[in-house]
Amino acid sequence: MRSAKRYDALIIGSGASGGMAAKELTSRGFEVLVLEAGPPVNPTRDFSSHTWPYQMMYRGFGPPGWKQQEQWMQDTASYYSRHFYVKDSEHPYTTDPGKPFMWVRARIVGGKTLHWGRLSWRLSDLDFKAASHDGFGDDWPISYAEMAPYYDRVEEFIGVSGNNDGLTHVPDGKYMPAMPMTCGEHLLRKGAEKTGRPAISSRVAMLTTQPKSFMKGRRKCHYCGHCGDGCITNDRQSGLTNCGDAGWLTDRSGYRYDERDPSTGRAWPAMPDEFRQLALGAATRAGFPGFVPDACLVNRYTPGSRLTAHRDADEQDFEQPIVSVSLGLPASFAFYSLTRGGKGRGVALEDGDVLVWGGPSRLVYHAVRPIKPGTHPVTGGLRYNLTFRHAR
C-alpha cells in the first residue's frame, strides 16, 4: 500500500549509526523514516538481566548444542540474549577460503546497542595519522583535533564513565566518575606499574551518577553484572519503587532492604497512613492482628511482564504476613510449595483484590504469571501491585 507522506530522510537500521543519525536529523526538524528488520523492544519481556541462573533451564547455558546448531557465528549471544540476534541457520553467509569473518548481526530495534561491550575509547592521531607515525596504512583525511568536539557531544549525550588519565594514545574526555576497580583489577594495576605501564579504568557508556535531565527514563547503574543480556535499568522488570521505612532493591551486593533510595541518596517517601491502615485491616481480617508494615513495594507491570518464582525470606520476622494489593489489569498469581518447582496453584486477581498469606505458607514460593494485554479505566494498559511487609 502506498503512503502519500514524503520523508526528508530514510534510515535503514536503528542501531548505533542509524539511531544517532535519526536523533540528529529529527532534532533539526527533518521528517525521518527508520526501517528496522526486527521488532521493538519491550524491556519487561525481552530483557533477562535480573533472572538468576537457577531460574532457567540448564542454569542459563541452554540445551546442549543449541549454539552450534542455531547461532554459531553470534559470538556474544547467550541463552539469555539469543532472541536479539539472527539465527545463522536461517541467515547463512559465506567468506573466501582462508578469510573467515565473524558477522554478529542483530534484528531488533536498537540493534547491537542492546548488548554491545560499552567500551568508549577515543581514537588519537596515532590512529588517524598512522601512516605518518609508522609508515603503515593511510592517513585519515581528518585529525583528532577535528573530531574532539564531536567526541565531547556524544560522551555527554550517552553518558560515558572513566578517568582523565593524561595518556596521549587514549585522549581524555567528558566523563562521569569511573567505575571502581575490582580487587583483581587493583592487583593487575600494581603489577603493571612494576613494568612502567599504567592500568586504567575502562571508559564505558554506563551511568555512574544521576542521569541528566535529557536522559529520559534512564537510571544509574546498579552493578548487577548482566550488561550483555540487555540492560533494564531504564525500565526494570516491573518498574519497582518503594515507600516506608525500608525499600527493597538490588545492587552489586545482591537483593536487600535499605533505608535510602540509591538513585537519590534520600530516604524513601513515608508510607501514607491510608496504605498502612489498608494493610493492617486486611491482615487482621485474615487472622494476623498486630501486623506492622514498615515497607511497601510498588510494582508497575506492563503487558507481557511477569515475576518469576521466589519467596520473601529477607525479612527478620516470619510471623508477620505478606499483604498484596492488586490494582489495574488482572493478574494470575501462582503459589507453589516450600520448594521451587511443580505446576503451581493459580489465583486470579482483579482490580482491588487483596491477598494475604502467612503462618505455614509464609515462605512458599510464588510468582506472577505474564500480564495479559488489556485496558483499565484508571490505570490504562498497566497493572500496579502494592506489597506490604514487615522488613525489620
Q: In words, what does this structure look like?
A:
This protein is α+β, with helices and mostly antiparallel strands. It has three domains: 9-114, no CATH class; 125-194, no CATH class; 238-389, Jelly Rolls. 18% of the residues lie in helices and 16% in strands. The protein has eight helices and 13 strands. The strands form four sheets. A five-stranded antiparallel beta sheet has the order 3-6-13-8-11, with helices on one face. α1 (16-27) links the parallel β1 and β2. The longest helix is centred in the middle third of the chain and has 15 residues, at 144-158. The relative contact order is 0.10. Residues 234-239 have low confidence and may be disordered.
Low-confidence stretches: 234-239
Secondary-structure element string: EHEHHHHHHEEEHEEEEEEEE
- Calculate the terminal CA-CA distance, rounded to whole Å: 62 Å
Q: How much strand content do the residues show?
A: 15-25%
CATH superfamily of the largest domain: Alpha-ketoglutarate-dependent dioxygenase AlkB-like
What is the number of domains? 3
* Cα-based radius of gyration, to the nearest Å: 25 Å
Number of β-strand runs = 13
Class per helix and strand makeup: alpha+beta
How can the largest sheet be summarized? 5 strands, antiparallel
Strand order of the largest sheet: 3-6-13-8-11
User: What name does CATH use for the topology of the largest domain?
Assistant: Jelly Rolls
Shape: globular
Number of helices: 8
CATH architecture of the largest domain: Sandwich
Question: How confident is the prediction overall: mean pLDDT?
Answer: 87
CATH C-level class of the largest domain is Mainly Beta
Percent of residues in helices: 10-25%
